[in-house]
UniProtKB/TrEMBL annotation:
It holds the Pfam family Glycos_transf_1. This is Glycosyltransferase family 4 protein. Gene3D superfamilies: Glycogen Phosphorylase B. Residues 18-117 form the Glycosyltransferase subfamily 4-like N-terminal domain. It comes from Novosphingobium rhizovicinum.
Amino acid sequence: MRIAQVAPLAEAVPPKLYGGTERVVWWLTEALVDLGHDVTLFASGDSVSSAKLIPCAPAGLRLCGVGDHTASTLAMLDQVFRSADQFDIIHFHVDLLQYPLFRGLAGKCVTTLHGRQDLPDNLPVFGAFPEMKLVSISDNQRTPIPHANFISTVHHGMPLKLIPAAEGGEYLAFIGRISPEKRPDRAIEIAKRAGMKLKIAAKVDRVDAAYFHEVIEPLIDGTQIEFINEVGDAEKAAFLGGARALLFPIDWPEPFGLVMIEAMAAGTPVIAWRNGSTPEVVEHGRSGYLVESIEEAVAAVHAAADLPRSGVRAAFEERFTSARMAEDYLHLYRSLTSSHPQPTMPLVLAAA
């Protein structure tokens, strides 16, 4: 199949440091290429891929200091639109800006929603563009918008060998983004009550800087509670693999939570608040524990020491590989191309 993958421009594909959506796009793109498909990736110019790369910005915009990505994304979508007849499927990972431009090509388009859908901001678009087909990354993600045109849920997957199984250690890990909804304060309290060291590998966005400096930074002593900033893929395997458990004490409807499967790949159990997607990802008592209180989390920290890491890794291999994710998407792509005739570009645009 001739497949276009359209990535956000916030980060490179794969990201240099923090970045979830672009990392998933990379894993999916590489898996599709491995399966023999003709894949074109629309992404930032510092991206690296086995697919044909169409650079749509010089580099990932976040690390370049660009705050508003709308203009760059619209310019990229224009590039995609002008080459749309070259593809059997156009797979968007940029949420909603493409809807007006591509509604006439809806039969060959699919959009994976990567963010939270429980806020009212984006609700009007789903009613205005009902022909645009959507994929959720967890069943829970679609709960606030049940009437949107979802055609499937596809859980994320990552390469089998990217993060190897490891023996673990005697510290707890927190990785991601410092923000109130991620609840690093809970992670710190859990570690202190459990009498264990906590290593925090996280980025601090400008919008969360005050929260970090006023709430979290005073709790970091550099000994029991250690802050090590962002980590990239090169450091992530050792960081997660050396932990007894990953703490995922979220206080929001997490759409998926990529770090959970990254920890599972290392054989590291996940201790997650029962919220959002976590019951779909964590198998309680096998790949980790689902908790609803600090007390339950502390008990889970101690229980994690006896949880077989081989079973955690097996849970990852069975459910969350990029090969499985690619096959799930290929099933969707084929269903779209078999049920809809291939659209053509509007004559007015072709003449121009």
